[in-house]
UniProtKB/TrEMBL annotation:
NCBIfam families: maf. Keywords: Cytoplasm, Hydrolase, Nucleotide metabolism. The keyword Cell inner membrane does not apply. One of its GO terms (cellular component) is cytoplasm. This is 7-methyl-GTP pyrophosphatase. Its cofactor is a divalent metal cation. The lineage of its organism: Bacteria, Pseudomonadati, Pseudomonadota, Gammaproteobacteria, Oceanospirillales. Signal peptide: none annotated. The active site is at 69 (proton acceptor). It comes from Halomonas organivorans.
Amino acid sequence: MPRLVLASSSRFRRQLLDRLEIPYAWESPDIDETPHPGESPQALVHRLSLAKAERLATDWPDHLIIGSDQVAVFEGETLGKPSDEASARHQLARFSGHRVSFLTGLALIDTRNAGHRVCHERYDVVFRRLSEAEIARYVARERPLDSAGSFRMEGLGITLFERLEGDDPNALIGLPLIRLCQLLREAGLDPLGEP
């Protein structure tokens, strides 16, 4: 049975993967996440997810390596992680009362045969109308500077929303588990299979 590696430094992705109860290793891939000029959000999350997994491929032979990346898309603009609290407050003020799409890329490399699969999941968030004071309090309390879109779904971020729309809420946290389970089964690692 292939062994599993998560190419991520995100504790939230590790917490999601823990839910599958499959033993795995993890390592930070440390890649440049700068978008290329004119790169679409879908192309960006595909490229970065695959690059994260590829970064670890030579060090982990005979493994399945998971890479994932996420961006927010608002009014045609691709938004990543805020650089500071002022940027986070600005992003959330722009989102107030609007729909924001989150694209989460997912790559799975099989180093046994150099095969790979790359896909993405879309999840939409409709923000309720937020006051300046609510935004300031949220950012001060949660400090979501390492999260695309300036919020954490797994924390107080849920207080910002009117509704959520999509197939897999785990994608919003950063790792689409439904699609990942499908890819793992196709690669011969069934989360509900024999240990």
